[in-house]
Amino acid sequence: MEAQAQGLLETEPLQGRDEDAIASADSPSMLSEEEKEELKAELVQLEDEITTLRQVLSAKERHLVEIKQKLGMNLMNELKQNFSRSWHDVQTTTAYKKTHETLSHAGQKATAAFSNVGTAISKKFGDMRNSPTFKSFEERVETTVTSLKTKVGGANHGGGSFEEVLSSTAHASAQSSAGGPRLAEGEELQC
């Protein structure tokens, strides 16, 4: 049997006569009764060892579960720990660090770009508000509101700024639509 084992460990490629020897060794009818008995005994021994190892493994797994229960560890905590450990491992890789740096740099550039756009829009609105067209529109709205106040309330408070006029108009509109104070006959609305 040792001669056969030595032959299996050889690293040279098989020759024609070696292939014939292996083919004849694979045939169960070529084994002597003594070799068959040895192989059967070895097979039984291996099966017993495998069974024993499975029992030992099962006992160790039960013991592991008991220890984890005593420590308050459960499946969810284990998953969290595994995820945290994996995430940490990912964060320490060179690829992650390079990607993080690139995205961080891109984010900073995007933030700067949005800031510049916001500043430009604010400047444009400021320029628009100071434009003659907007001033003309503002005056028309102010005149219209003053006219409405005169017609509705009978009192003229001298116009005021655009913001004051809009505020008073909104206030008057809210009172009238919300069922504000009702006027008795002959009473005037004061804004």
Brief account:
The protein has 191 residues and is mainly α.
- In terms of DSSP E residues, the strand content is under 5%
What coarse outline follows from CA principal-axis ratios?
rod-shaped
DSSP strand tally: 0
Q: Average pLDDT across residues?
A: 77
Low-confidence stretches: 1-9
Query: Which series of helices and strands comes N to C?
Result: HHHHHHH
Give the radius of gyration: 47 Å
**Number of distinct helices:** 7
- Determine the N-to-C terminus distance: 116 Å
> What structural class should be given to the helix and strand makeup?
mainly alpha
Into which percent range does the helicity of residues fall?
A: over 70%
Largest sheet: none
Annotation keywords:
191 residues, 7 helices, mainly alpha, rod-shaped, 0% strand, single chain
Write structural notes for this entry.
It is a single chain. Residues 1-9 have low confidence and may be disordered. The protein has helices at 2-9, 16-26, 33-70, 75-91, 94-129, 132-153, 162-177. Helices cover 77% and strands 0% of the residues. It has 191 residues and is mainly α. The protein has seven helices and no strands.
Indicate the topology.
Layout: H1 2-9, H2 16-26, H3 33-70, H4 75-91, H5 94-129, H6 132-153, H7 162-177
Helix pairs in contact: 6-7
